[in-house]
C-alpha cells in the first residue's frame, strides 16, 4: 500500500510539472463552511492531486479559505461567496465538485424530512454546475442522497449535458462504519475488514453484504450489526442532541472517495473500487434506476458496475425491503425537478 502511494505521489509530481497542457485538478467544495465542508476541505488540502481547492458557501468561506490557505501543501486555496459571481468563479474549470451543502438532521427526523429544504439547494447548485462546469464529476453528499442524486441527474438531463458516468451519490460513510463496527465486535483491525454496502443511503435502503466478508457471524450478531450499519447515522444525530449529524467521519469518508476518484480520473489508475450510489441497471427491471454497489472507477468516472455476487437469503430479504423505498425516493427527486 505504501509503495503504491509513493508511486502515486511521483506520478502526481510529473503530472503537475508537465507542460504538455494537461490541466491540473481543481476540486470545488460547495457548502465548504459547514460541519462537513470545513474538515473535508482540510483533508483535501493534503491531497497531492489537487492543484486548486475552491471553497464556496453562502457565508463564511473567505475566513475558512484564508485559514486553510496557510497550510504548506502545494495546492492553491480560493474562497467564494455568492457576491461578485462567486459561484461562477468557484466552479469554472473544476474537475470534481463535491457537494455537502444543505441542512442536517435533528433527533427524530428522517433523511427524507430534509427533502423540502435540500432539494432546491442541490437543484440550484447542479444548475450552476451545468452552466460553469458541465464536464465536471459531481459527488453528492447532501441528504437525502437517494433523492438528491436523481435531482442532479434530472437537472443535467434538462440541459442536455447528462453523463451518468460523472455523477455519484457518496455512500462511503456506510462502508467506513461497517468496517469499523465489524472490527469492534471481532477485535480486529478495521483496515482488514472490508464490507460491501449496497442499495442507498437511508435506513433500510442501506444493505451491508456481511456474508461476503471474511468473518463468520452468529444470527444475533448479524441482525445487530446490520441494524447498526443501517442506522449508524442516527447514533450520531442522537449523541449530537440537536446540533447536527455526522461531520468528521463524513469528511473522512468524502476525502477518501474524492482521492479514489482523483486517482482514477487524473492518474488513470485501474482497479480502484468504491461502493457508490450511481445510475445503475442492476435493478432497473424493477423500476429502480439508481443503486449503490461496488463501482470500478475509471478515467470516465463510473467504470464497471459490479453485480452483487452471491448473497444470503437474509440479504435477499434486505434488498427486497430496500427496493420499494429506493424507488419512491428516486421518483420523488425526479418529480421535484419536473415540477419545479
Ligand atoms: N452522504 C452522507 O453520508 C452524509 C453524511 C453526513 C451528512 N450528510 C448531509 O450533508 C449535508 C450537510 O451536513 P453538515 O453537517 O455539513 O451541515 P451544516 O449545516 O453544518 O453545513 C451545511 C453548509 O451548507 C451551506 N449551504 C446552505 N445552502 C447553500 C447553498 N445554496 N450553497 C452553498 N452552501 C450552502 C451552509 O451555509 C452550511 O455552511 C446535510 O444534508 C447532511 O444530511 C450526508
Ligand atoms: O444521519 C444523517 O442524517 C447524516 C448521514 O447521512 C449519516 O449517515 O451520518
From TrEMBL:
<dbReference type="InterPro" id="IPR001252">
    <property type="entry name" value="Malate_DH_AS"/>
</dbReference>
<keyword id="KW-0560">Oxidoreductase</keyword>
<feature type="binding site">
    <location>
        <position position="250"/>
    </location>
    <ligand>
        <name>NAD(+)</name>
    </ligand>
</feature>
<dbReference type="GO" id="GO:0005737">
    <property type="term" value="C:cytoplasm"/>
</dbReference>
<dbReference type="InterPro" id="IPR036291">
    <property type="entry name" value="NAD(P)-bd_dom_sf"/>
</dbReference>
<dbReference type="InterPro" id="IPR022383">
    <property type="entry name" value="Lactate/malate_DH_C"/>
</dbReference>
<feature type="binding site">
    <location>
        <position position="177"/>
    </location>
    <ligand>
        <name>substrate</name>
    </ligand>
</feature>
<dbReference type="InterPro" id="IPR015955">
    <property type="entry name" value="Lactate_DH/Glyco_Ohase_4_C"/>
</dbReference>
<feature type="active site" description="Proton acceptor">
    <location>
        <position position="201"/>
    </location>
</feature>
<dbReference type="InterPro" id="IPR001557">
    <property type="entry name" value="L-lactate/malate_DH"/>
</dbReference>
<dbReference type="GO" id="GO:0030060">
    <property type="term" value="F:L-malate dehydrogenase (NAD+) activity"/>
</dbReference>
<feature type="domain" description="Lactate/malate dehydrogenase N-terminal">
    <location>
        <begin position="26"/>
        <end position="169"/>
    </location>
</feature>
<feature type="domain" description="Lactate/malate dehydrogenase C-terminal">
    <location>
        <begin position="171"/>
        <end position="337"/>
    </location>
</feature>
<comment type="similarity">
    <text>Belongs to the LDH/MDH superfamily. MDH type 1 family.</text>
</comment>
<comment type="subunit">
    <text>Homodimer.</text>
</comment>
<dbReference type="InterPro" id="IPR001236">
    <property type="entry name" value="Lactate/malate_DH_N"/>
</dbReference>
<feature type="binding site">
    <location>
        <position position="105"/>
    </location>
    <ligand>
        <name>substrate</name>
    </ligand>
</feature>
<feature type="binding site">
    <location>
        <position position="57"/>
    </location>
    <ligand>
        <name>NAD(+)</name>
    </ligand>
</feature>
<feature type="binding site">
    <location>
        <position position="111"/>
    </location>
    <ligand>
        <name>substrate</name>
    </ligand>
</feature>
<dbReference type="Pfam" id="PF02866">
    <property type="entry name" value="Ldh_1_C"/>
</dbReference>
<feature type="binding site">
    <location>
        <position position="143"/>
    </location>
    <ligand>
        <name>substrate</name>
    </ligand>
</feature>
<feature type="binding site">
    <location>
        <begin position="141"/>
        <end position="143"/>
    </location>
    <ligand>
        <name>NAD(+)</name>
    </ligand>
</feature>
<dbReference type="GO" id="GO:0006108">
    <property type="term" value="P:malate metabolic process"/>
</dbReference>
<keyword id="KW-0816">Tricarboxylic acid cycle</keyword>
<dbReference type="GO" id="GO:0006099">
    <property type="term" value="P:tricarboxylic acid cycle"/>
</dbReference>
<dbReference type="InterPro" id="IPR010097">
    <property type="entry name" value="Malate_DH_type1"/>
</dbReference>
<protein>
    <recommendedName>
        <fullName>Malate dehydrogenase</fullName>
        <ecNumber>1.1.1.37</ecNumber>
    </recommendedName>
</protein>
<dbReference type="Pfam" id="PF00056">
    <property type="entry name" value="Ldh_1_N"/>
</dbReference>
<feature type="binding site">
    <location>
        <position position="118"/>
    </location>
    <ligand>
        <name>NAD(+)</name>
    </ligand>
</feature>
<feature type="binding site">
    <location>
        <begin position="31"/>
        <end position="37"/>
    </location>
    <ligand>
        <name>NAD(+)</name>
    </ligand>
</feature>
<keyword id="KW-0520">NAD</keyword>
Amino acid at each position: 500500500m505504501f509503495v503504491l502511494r509513493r508511486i502515486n505521489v511521483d506520478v502526481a509530481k510529473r503530472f503537475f510539472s508537465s507542460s504538455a497542457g494537461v490541466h491540473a485538478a481543481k476540486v470545488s467544495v460547495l457548502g465548504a463552511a459547514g460541519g462537513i465542508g470545513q474538515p473535508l476541505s482540510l483533508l483535501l488540502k493534503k491531497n497531492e492531486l489537487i492543484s486548486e481547492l475552491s471553497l464556496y458557501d453562502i457565508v463564511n468561506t473567505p475566513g475558512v479559505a484564508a485559514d486553510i490557505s496557510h497550510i504548506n501543501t502545494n495546492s492553491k486555496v480560493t474562497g467564494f461567496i455568492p457576491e461578485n459571481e462567486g459561484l461562477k468563479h468557484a466552479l469554472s474549470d473544476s474537475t470534481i465538485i463535491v457537494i455537502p451543502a444543505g441542512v442536517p438532521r435533528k433527533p427524530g427526523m428522517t433523511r427524507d424530512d430534509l427533502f423540502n429544504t435540500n432539494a432546491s439547494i442541490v437543484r440550484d447548485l447542479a444548475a450552476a454546475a451545468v452552466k460553469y462546469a458541465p464536464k465536471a464529476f459531481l459527488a453528492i453528499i447532501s441528504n437525502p442522497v437517494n433523492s438528491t442524486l436523481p435531482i442532479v441527474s434530472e437537472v443535467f438531463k434538462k440541459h442536455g449535458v447528462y453523463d451518468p458516468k460523472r455523477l455519484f451519490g457518496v455512500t462511503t460513510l456506510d462502508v467506513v462504519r461497517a468496517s469499523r463496527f465489524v472490527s469492534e465486535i471481532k477485535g480486529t483491525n478495521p483496515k482488514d475488514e472490508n464490507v460491501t454496502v449496497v442499495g442507498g443511503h437511508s435506513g433500510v435502503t442501506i444493505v451491508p453484504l456481511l456474508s461476503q466478508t471474511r468473518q463468520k457471524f452468529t444470527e444475533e450478531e448479524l441482525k445487530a450489526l446490520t441494524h447498526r450499519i443501517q442506522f449508524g447515522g442516527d447514533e450520531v444525530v442522537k449523541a449530537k442532541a440537536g446540533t447536527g449529524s455526522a461531520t468528521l467521519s463524513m469528511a473522512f469518508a468524502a476525502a477518501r472517495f474524492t482521492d479514489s476518484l482523483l486517482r482514477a480520473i487524473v492518474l488513470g489508475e485501474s482497479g480502484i473500487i468504491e461502493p457508490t450510489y450511481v445510475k445503475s441497471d442492476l435493478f432497473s427491471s424493477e423500476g429502480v434506476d439508481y443503486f449503490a454497489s461496488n463501482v470500478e472507477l475509471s478515467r470516465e468516472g463510473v467504470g464497471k458496475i459490479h453485480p452483487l455476487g452471491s448473497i444470503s437469503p437474509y440479504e435477499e430479504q434486505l434488498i427486497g425491503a430496500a427496493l420499494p423505498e429506493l424507488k419512491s425516493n428516486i421518483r420523488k427527486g425526479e418529480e421535484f425537478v419536473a415540477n419545479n
